[in-house]
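To the team - C2G complex, inputs and output below.
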Amino acid sequence: MKTVITYGTFDLLHYGHIRLLERAKELGDYLIVGITSDDFDKIRGKINVQQPLAERVAAVKATGLADQIIVEEYEGQKIDDIQRYGVDCFTVGSDWVGKFDYLKDYCDVVYLDRTKGVSSSQLRSKDRKLKLGLVGETPVFLNKFYEENKYVNGVEINGICTEDVSKFCDEIQKLDIVTNDLDDIIKNSDAVYIKSEHDLHYEHIKKALEAKKNVLCESPVALSKKQCEELFDLADKNGCVLMDAIRTAYSTAYARLLLLVKSGKIGDVVSVEATCTSMKYLKRTKSLLDWGANAMLPVFDILGTNYKSKTIISRFKDKGNHEDYYTQVDFIYDKATASIKVAEGAKSEGSLVIIGTKGYIYVPAPWWKMDYFEVRYEDQEENKRYFYQLDGEGIRYELVAFARVAQNKEMDYNRISKDVSLGICGVMEDFLGGEVVEI
Ligand code: C2G
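Output:
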């Protein structure tokens, strides 16, 4: 019996895939199909996959072409599988020609012509692409955001609303819509990404939601709980999406860290300590407004937003203008405490530590772009290390999630709850309202 093996994602199964499987089957008597796991696809850069593994397995199974289906989960697994299943022939489409020649040491390698005219990424974008308009003044970040979107199927950045577009990269300067009129960009886009000054977020979001456009906005989305509540109510009323853009929430490592905490891996959480410092943009230091939301994310995700009390402690550069060199916010909960330390005018180790009654989780700096963390115990033999590939700081994953929520209303892709957004806006409101212990 001649055993053949082939691998793929097989997302949105189409005739190109089926023709490949048919020809693979003809190469022998027994066909094994390896289907990539969701994590493995993300790690190898396929971040736009629409269907979860179970659906992809079922679709391949329904073709009746596979004698056996396995899951491909890690780099190098093909060698293990070829040896484990006594494979005589590996085959894959010609878009991979040369990439698997190393398998010739273990079995025959056959590249089959790829079927022209169809691909999963085409199918993913078959619904009209989401036209996304940018709103903001910071070229450093918006240029990066533009680059990141190149990895996202189904979203096309079609314009920018800014005062001076000459500061931006050439591609942004050549966008269809370049304006300084917010109404322009809202009218001509399906959705907007807002990275304007914090005190303009509320007004910008409100205009977009009133026009029934979806919004992805840097956090905080507003500078008071009331305004935040009002924006989410408006989004609900108009059937739109308002998504808080804290990209940490979209990194696999962060999502897995939360699952480990919630599964009791470190016992009851007694403290969350998050530090974010950055002195890159020294010309202004709005530490809490710029970094507070990111730092509060793990606090509110793990301990919730119903703290009993909080103390905001700030060292100001210009109190009247709410420019703080350093701000610390200490939260007291029923059975836990939390402390965030944020600084654009001071420097510290940007780590995240989650303290539990059985052990603790340590995320090294810069934890907000995490791809790695450790679960540590008294007995170091029990320590575990976790690594999850993160490309581009997580912006592309945030964009994929936003597109899913905005286009298909798949709300579970929005990793930041309204409760967390409200909690963040509430702290900002108290800070701006002067509820601060000054040092
Ligand atoms: N394919 C094809 N014609 C198409 C599209 C895909 O012949 N129009 C083939 C691919 O070459 C591949 C298989 O169908 O052999 C599955 O394609 P994908 O699901 O896109 O997965 P891919 O990541 O390309 O699979 O490690 C090997 C890779 O997993 C190969």
